[in-house]
Design brief:
This protein is α+β, with helices and mostly antiparallel strands and 469 residues long. The protein has 16 helices and 16 strands. It is 43% helix and 19% strand. Strands 8, 9, 10, 12 and 14 form a five-stranded antiparallel beta sheet that branches. A four-stranded antiparallel beta sheet has the order 13-11-15-16, with no helix packed on it. A hairpin with a 2-residue loop joins strand 4 and strand 5. The longest helix has 27 residues. The radius of gyration is 32 Å and the shape is elongated. The structure holds iron/sulfur cluster (2 copies). The site of one iron/sulfur cluster has 14 residues, from helix 14.
Length: 469
């Protein structure tokens, strides 16, 4: 186990004094102080595109089709211009595995940046905190408001805050369901009270979950519920970037006047508690790396602003590595990272190849079960088949249906069929053959569907042609 993990355990396992530990401790409400700084700006830059993407994507139509639609009843997923059918779902699993390796790589390199900058829990909590601050004021005003007895002014502020939270939560739940059912229809159905009950149930569930997670539970989701917080340290090593307090420079900490020169007895930490007050999980980074730290770097912004005011160099709290803290160098290129990147690149190349070469048409054939064969004029024999033809392309395509394997066998009726982009066509096909050409009561026959505009795209399927004994 790395020293980093030892630190985590040491910090969490070493109580200040021996005593009874209540495993069901009451939660202390955290009143975070708003802070501006370069990492806060970076979080805004990463959070907004994600939010806009989440809320806008289902409203964008591509080729007349909702850009992202997980159409469960039709068992097909539309993602941008691609359509995934059940037989393609292994590709989605593949994509998830590539994403997981991407997360491992980023975590090994820069710690919990996913948690701090892009995790939906973090992003939605940031919006809810902004709404809270908008209606209830700064940290001190919120503490004062909570301590004050209920009054009309307090009720109004709380009411406005919870209404804002519920609005965002409802929009989140509605948009989520809009990824599974056409969102424009859903909008009309919800407001005319004609939405089906399952859609309403899922909107309600996601509204409530968002409201509770981002409004009430916040850091508790990261601390107690998220499994990633628990196993992230497995990916850490001594070169992983972590938010750390430089205790050699900061200790002994102590308050001092801004005008007075730094005394030789004190380190650079002025013990102002700013780093604690901005922390969304309410921890003190000066206690060392803790599993509750989501790596948001707000404490860096807070401490940098204090250092600026004091006229000290920035970086008392900073992104650094264990090696760096101990006076060594941070190694970016190291075996673990090279391993993650190599595996990820191989998987991405293989995935791209599989995507580029995947079949653009799929066909299944079922024999008509009610009648094995039918007698046609001239002593000929007809067999009837049910054909399911899937066009995996984004645009409508025409296909030519042919049969081979039996001399003289022919399709009766129109051999051309047009199938919409990402659609499945079902048709009944009658095939006629001369019994003289049939060697046995059951003869193999091959159906072939070829795209009219590109003969290289085709699929075939074998079935049986039956004749009287
Ligand atoms: S300790 Fe710093 S980086 Fe960690 S969660 Fe708190 S503010 Fe964010
Ligand atoms: S913000 Fe910086 S100076 Fe203030 S208590 Fe935290 S580490 Fe010390």
């Amino acid at each position: 186990m790395s020293d980093t993990r030892d630190n985590v355990l040491a910090v969490d396992a070493a109580p200040a004094e021996v005593g009874e530990l209540d495993l069901y401790q009451k939660r202390e409400k955290i009143y975070t102080r708003a802070i501006q700084g370069r990492f806060q700006r970076l979080r805004t830059l990463t959070g907004w595109p994600l939010l806009l993407g989440y809320f806008c994507l289902p409203w964008i139509n591509l080729f007349g089709q909702q850009s992202v639609l997980f159409d469960l009843p039709a068992r097909k997923f539309h993602i941008l211009t691609m359509t995934f059918w059940p037989q393609d779902f292994f590709m989605l699993a593949w994509l998830l595995i590539i994403s997981a390796f991407g997360l491992f790589t980023v975590t090994a390199l820069a710690g919990r940046v996913w948690c701090g900058y892009t995790c939906p829990q973090t992003v939605w909590t940031a919006i809810f905190m902004w709404i809270e601050q908008f209606f209830e004021g700064s940290r001190n005003q919120r503490i004062k408001l909570d301590k004050a007895p209920m009054s009309f002014a307090k009720f109004r502020r709380k009411f406005m805050k919870h209404s804002g939270w519920l609005f965002v939560a409802f929009m989140t739940g509605f948009t989520f369901v809009g990824y599974f059912t056409p969102i424009r229809d859903l909008l009309g159905d919800v407001f005319t009270l004609q939405a089906n009950s399952w859609a309403l149930v899922w909107i309600f569930i996601f509204t409530v979950l968002t409201y509770l997670n981002a409004g009430w539970m916040r850091e508790q989701v990261c601390t107690y519920m998220c499994p990633y917080a628990r196993f992230q340290s497995v990916m850490f090593d001594r070169d992983t970037l972590i938010v750390s307090y430089d205790s050699q420079r900061g200790e002994p900490r102590g308050a001092r006047k801004r005008t007075r020169e730094q005394t030789s007895q004190l380190g650079d930490c002025v013990d102002c508690q700013m780093c604690v007050q901005v922390c969304p999980t309410g921890i003190d980074i000066r206690d060392g790396l803790q599993y509750k730290c989501i790596g948001c770097a707000l404490c860096i912004d807070a401490c940098d602003s204090v250092m600026d005011k004091m006229g000290y160099a920035r970086g008392l709290v900073s992104y650094t590595s264990e090696n760096r803290l101990e006076g060594g160098q941070t190694h970016i290129l190291r075996p673990r990272l090279i391993g993650y990147v190599t595996v990820m690149c191989i998987m991405m190349v293989a995935f791209s190849y599989a995507m580029l070469t995947r079949d653009m048409v799929d066909m299944t054939i079922l024999r008509e079960r009610n009648q094995l064969y039918m007698e046609a004029p001239g002593g000929l024999i007809d067999n009837v088949y049910k054909i399911h033809l899937s066009n995996l392309d984004a645009d409508a395509r025409s296909f030519l249906l042919e049969v081979t394997g039996i001399d003289g066998a022919e399709v009766i009726g129109d051999q051309r069929i047009t199938v919409g982009g990402g659609e499945l066509a079902e048709l009944t096909l009658r095939v006629r053959a001369n019994p003289i050409d049939l060697q046995a009561p059951s003869t193999p026959i091959v159906f072939k569907a070829t795209r009219v505009d590109d003969a290289s795209i085709s699929t075939d399927h074998e079935s049986r042609f039956m004749k009287p004994l």
